Amino acid sequence: MTTFGIIGAGHIGSQVARAAVAHGHEVVIANSRGPETLRDLIEELGPRARAATAEEAGAAGDVVVVSVPLHALSQVPVEPLAGKIVLDTNNYYFERDGHIEALDKGETTTSQLLQEHLPTSKVAKAFNHITWSDITTDGTPAGTPNRRALATSSDFSEAAAFVTAFYDEIGFDTVDVGPLSESWRVERDRPAYVRRQNAQELEENLAVANRLP
User: Which sign, positive or negative, has the C-alpha torsion 185, 187, 193, 197?
Assistant: First the structure.
């Protein structure tokens, strides 16, 4: 059993919480409005889940999921996440986040920005290129023909391995994109983004992606 600290209780964060609880893990989840506003979600998730502040969720998690808007990355606590695997679900929406020159020019990636903010953590890209509702509905057992695949990316092999194992547990194959510097291949507006694809199709879509879509 793994305890997931989840910072951000929007669509993706809540669905990852549901998937984790459904497979016997525990969840400590936070949002920007305070634990008391998560009462309905915690009631739905059941006894394996509790609400907390972002600092408390980060401290409690064996693994931490960061699922906040990109413009709020600076608010993610640093010290409670030190030494931990951190799953980054983020995407860059300039309409929401404002323009970030380094992203607009293809000089960095969203996950690299989080890794820079969390220098003592082990960031891995996860769950950013799947429609949130599909996380708990599209998984199938290992070996299923045409099983859906999701990508991960990390500068730390143990972080990528964790994502691979968790994906498999909840019903997805994995394609490892490589270091975070390559994670742009699965970002918004690329061929692999929010598309149902098996591992071979995902590899093909990653290969044909342009750095600047």
Answer: positive
Kindly state the tokens that stand for 130. 């799947």
Quote the tokens at residue 72. Answer: 């709020």
Residue 111: closest CA among 130, 87, 129, 138:
87
| pTM for this prediction | 0.96
Q: What are 64-74's pLDDT values in tens digits?
A: 999 999 999 99
Token pair, residue 12, equals 């993706």
Q: What pLDDT, on a 0 to 100 scale, did the predictor assign at position 209?
A: 97
**Who's near 100: CB < 8 A, 6+ residues apart?**
70, 92, 94, 113
Determine the length of the chain.
213
